[in-house]
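residues and backbone:
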Amino acid sequence: MKALVFRKSLEFRTDYPVPEPGRDEALVRVKLAGICNTDLEITKGYMKFEGVPGHEFVGRVERSEGKDLEGKRVTGEINIGCGECPFCRNNLPTHCPNRSVLGIARRDGAFAEYVAIPVKNLHIIPDSVSDEEAVFIEPLAAAFEILEQVKIKNSDRVCVLGDGKLGLLVGQVLSLTDCDLVVAGRHVEKLSILEKMGIKTEIVPAKAGARPSRGAFDIAVDCTGSSYGIQTALEITKPRGTIILKTTVAQNVAFDLNSVVINEITIIGSRCGPFHRALEAIEKKSVELRPMISRSFNIEDGVEAFEYASQKGVLKVLLKID
């Protein structure tokens, strides 16, 4: 089958083996997939992953033990737990120590004609949601995870750091809380997507020391996709404030732990989230997704697509597979 494969470098192949679904798994023919920052970090060594990357996708079930799923348009949650450990038994497969993660850890992902995934991980996509919108369900769910972890009040001053793909999604989700929100970034054209939705933004110049107002925010969310995001978040958060970390990068990150202790800052890691909330938001048109698509490529041009997605100012890049 056609696939993008990463082993020291990224290459397009036409002879990659079709995955054989395991017990209680489905074989999904992928239609459309999205390149996210995690995929770009994988090509820099993140998670030491080798194989087929990709975890944001929409496709149709071609084969499944549950015949009622065959032919259905689906997307899927990316963490596959062992089903036996204490985390899995307590409905926390995202923290299973033995888990595989679609296109990220120990399991081939969706930048291929076919992907194998447990039936329980699949979500049927309603007809009212387009393929282009469905590709955003996984990262949009990750944005909604913040609201599962933190109670945000109307009176809270909140800053989202970063105007990339995830930053724009997080900004839209947090705007639904009616908090005092600002999204800070470096690209006027990207921030304009939020401005048109009535969400406040702030341009942060690309120079040393540039940041939003120091110590001004109750909550800061790091979506910068860079190693400096956590330090900036520490500098703009009030004493006894909260920092939510969304950034994952290949390199190790250093920051000032003294300021965490002195200012009694709460730091919360945040990643995967509730797919049902993301689907509901898309169906209700609570979020705007199409303006975030920069360009689409055929999978045959996947290496070029990755190069394009790595350029500054680029948002979501899609791979057309079927």
Summary: Residues 133 and 290 are 7 Å apart (CA to CA). The two ends are 11 Å apart (CA to CA). The longest strand covers residues 25-35.
